[in-house]
Design brief:
The complex is a heterodimer. Helix content of chain A is about 25%, strand content about 35%. Chain A is of the alpha+beta class. Chain B has a two-stranded antiparallel ribbon with strand order 1-2. The C terminus of chain B is likely disordered. The chains are: A alpha+beta, B mainly alpha.
Chain lengths: ~110, ~425
């Protein structure tokens, strides 16, 4: 199994959710996050005093997938979250040892 | 008694009252969350302290019979000698109580103006004491100089229609003196100290703008052409000052900021206060534009000179007050302008600055040396709301589900043996 994590612009969340549903993903976890990439943050000005705000708002999406679906799923997420502008985010995947459905105790792919 | 004038002055006084809570929101939105309530309270408490002192002896010291041009007397202590039939002299013919009430609101607002300079770092009790001392030894005398018959600036014919000198220059320079005694906030120039709520700042600025019509037009003490001129000029100058500040910001920093619009409006209100009765609407526009741009430039001085005037009381009220006080000597259209008037205006502005600076500095030192002015370092870092008011401005756990749960108060248990106990909320 793989854990696919995407950190994206908040306003692309709806598109990504719809694309994942269309792909057949059953569940996902969304967290509000903040951070920066190469573009850094932005500058705010209050009465002439400038403040550099490094961390910009992002959304973090986590999805568990079976190994054979992972590559395709990454493509789906990347396509749905892309605006072509700076700060679109990152998507990565990690191997997962095990997963358990809490209600039933099912393990592995059955738990997804 | 003139009923129309009396009604106008009473309504104006109520409008001026709104300026103090308006100021509290203007300042309150500009500080960080952890001390937002303290900022509101520093202004709001003035409504309590000064209202009482004004009746006890303030009115008498400010507007009682003159002593050597510098102070009134104690004849009207506790408003002795004034009753419902006592009218002001001359054309106004309004009850003296109406005048006392109107002027009370000015005395309340002026020390509250200074609170923004000391944001986030003074003990609340010490601030309350400072207000009481400051109105007694600074505001009441200066109000006498400027507005009372026999006051030396009044006799010199210095123009301060609604308080550019007595209120704004006085508070601005007093704030600077206090700041120099108190010192900088922990983290000044290192930590980001961004406003926590610009909508509150805008709301506060709007209330100030609204209340200022009473402040300025009401100072005519009559529902007449002067009041109408003043009301119109107040609106025009304030609009122009907002544009002046925004234009300066757009050129210097590349954005039209919300805080700039609110600040520019206040700068314009300050600047038109001393001068508005003596200029036409075009003059008011010039005064507004000048005040907007100059105050916008002046607020950056604290970073260059290294004093921590937290919310720019010096940059907005002192500089705005000086701009308006001097420009009336240049732009007056009713024959009072000219070089000699400009000289008088400068004497008025700078004598009040010198007096207020010295006495305010001494009073701040006195408070510092006796009860201690500065809050404890821990309290300053953790936020003054908890330290002095046992409250927080925003409870984000109130929606439920948070671990930050309090204990429930025991209702109706006063006097019972368990009255002092509190019990845990069931989870």
């Amino acid at each position: 199994m793989k854990l696919i994590t995407a950190v994206i612009k908040p306003h692309r969340l709806e598109e990504v959710k719809e694309a994942l549903q269309a792909f057949g993903v059953q569940g996902l976890t969304v967290t509000e996050a903040s951070g920066y990439g190469r573009q850094r943050g932005h500058t705010e000005v209050y009465r002439g005093a400038e403040y550099t705000v490094d961390l910009v708002p992002k959304v973090r999406i986590e999805v568990l997938a079976e190994d054979e679906d992972a590559e395709q799923l990454i493509e789906v997420v990347v396509k749905a979250s892309r605006t072509g502008k700076i700060g679109d985010g990152k998507v990565w995947s990690l191997p997962v040892d095990t997963a358990v459905r809490v209600r039933t105790g099912e393990r592995g792919p059955d738990a997804l | 008694m003139n009923g129309a004038d009396t009604a106008f002055v009473l309504i104006s006084a109520a409008l001026v009252m709104v300026m103090t809570p308006g100021l509290a929101f203007f300042y309150g939105g500009m500080v960080r969350v952890k001390s937002a309530l303290n900022m509101l309270m520093m202004s709001f408490v003035s409504l309590g302290i000064v209202s009482v002192l004004w009746v006890l002896y303030g009115y008498s010291l400010a507007f009682g019979s003159d002593n050597g041009g510098v102070i009134g007397n104690f004849d009207h202590i506790g408003l002795k000698g004034i009753d419902v039939t006592t009218l002001t002299d001359g054309k106004e013919g309004i009850p003296v109580f109406a005048f006392v009430f109107f002027q009370l609101m000015f005395a309340v607002l002026t020390p509250a103006l200074m609170s923004g300079a000391l944001a986030d770092r003074v003990k609340f009790s010490a601030w309350a004491l400072f207000i009481a001392l400051w109105v007694t030894f600074v505001y009441f005398p200066v109000a006498h100089w400027v507005w009372a018959e026999g006051g030396w600036l009044f006799e010199l014919e210095v123009i301060d229609f609604a308080g550019g000198t007595a209120v704004h220059i006085n508070a601005g320079i007093g704030a600077l003196a206090a700041v120099l005694v108190i010192g900088k906030r922990i983290g000044f120039r290192k930590d980001a100290m961004r406003p926590h709520s610009l909508p509150l700042v805008m709301l506060g600025a709007a209330l100030l703008w609204f209340g200022w019509f009473g402040f300025n037009a009401g100072s005519a003490l009559a529902a007449d052409g002067t009041a109408a001129t003043m009301a119109l000029n107040t609106q025009v100058a304030t609009g122009a000052a907002m544009l002046g500040w925004l234009a300066y910001e757009r050129v210097r920093h590349g954005a039209f900021t919300t805080l700039g619009a609110a600040s520019g409006a206040v700068a314009g209100l300050v600047a038109i206060t001393p001068s508005g009765a003596h200029v036409n609407a075009m003059g008011a526009i010039l005064i507004g534009l000048a005040a907007g741009a100059l105050c916008s430039w002046a607020v950056s001085l604290k970073f260059k000179l290294g004093y921590d005037d937290s919310l720019d009381v010096v940059g907005v009220h002192l500089v705005g007050g000086v701009v308006g006080t001097l420009l009336v000597g240049v732009l007056a259209i009713d024959g009072v302008g000219g070089a000699s008037q400009l000289g008088k205006q400068a004497v008025g502005a700078f004598s009040v600055m010198a007096f207020s600076f010295v006495v305010s500095w001494l009073l701040a030192r006195l408070v510092q040396a006796t009860v201690g002015f500065r809050a404890a370092e821990d309290d300053e870092v953790a936020g003054l709301d908890q330290a002095f008011h046992a409250e927080t401005a925003y409870d984000s756990s109130a929606a439920g589900g948070s671990a930050a749960r309090g204990t429930a108060p025991v209702h109706g248990a006063a006097g019972s043996e368990t009255g002092k106990q509190t019990r845990k909320v069931d989870a």
